[in-house]
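Any chance you could type out a protein's amino acid sequence plus the matching backbone structure tokens because I've never seen that pairing?

——
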Amino acid sequence: MDQKNPYSRRLVVANSDADIAVTMWEGNGPQILLIHGIGSSSGDFANVVPALSEFCQPITLDLRGHGDSSRPDHGYHYDDYVRDLDRVLEELDLEHPIVLGHSLGGIITLLWAGAHPETAQAFIVEDSPLRSGASFASFFDGWLTLNALPEDQVRTWYTGENPSWSDAILDQRAHDMVNTSRTAIEELRDLSLSGQGLDTAGDLSMITVPLLFLHGDPDAGSMVHPDDLVAFDAQVPQAEIVRIAGAGHNIHRSHAEEWVSQVRAFTARSSCP
């Protein structure tokens, strides 16, 4: 726990089958809601929350099936996550926040944005895949394999794959992966392989507020196909698309300083007068 950033933690009754754990951090500036990816938790952003608190008021949540939130037997489709987000924003009375999502969190962010194009102050998406299909099967198979292993073995695997990560990040990542609902990974896998993703989500051109899309390099592990960025740029013309050179899928972990710098600058540009 970072003593410089006191927080309050609560459960939000999102829907009949799930309570969502929410952490509200003290900070300065606009409220920013952070949504993690599959196999993670709100702790995923622990390494960047102190820096964000200098210019924002961070709010983190655990998606259903993750962290301290409920783990229903089923109900891990995109619509379920979007409804949970609706309830969290309503319960916390967040009328005009910045919403930031990584990976699955970014997909949820964009789907919610399409239904509420002018509600948020701004959107930030970090390396979220803009297509679905069989090309992602290996990712899901890998997550399912890790999910079934003992935590110490998962940590060893992440250490080998990400030697630059700190011990705290490695501990958090391994803990989150083995404690994620297996059904959450399986249902998302089925959705993606059946061709249900942002590429079939409908018209995102209705989003009119500022939007920042951060992505890494495919050779380093980014899940964003370059051709999809061209189509996204045409569909959401006000979006700022920024490549973090040398970064993979987990930009806020591997390139935290540059990630924070981009978020800080974008927040300053998009803040209401």
Remarks:
- The first helix runs from residue 49 to 52.
- Residues 7-130+205-270 form a domain with the Rossmann fold fold (CATH 3.40.50.1820).
- The chain has ten helices and eight strands.
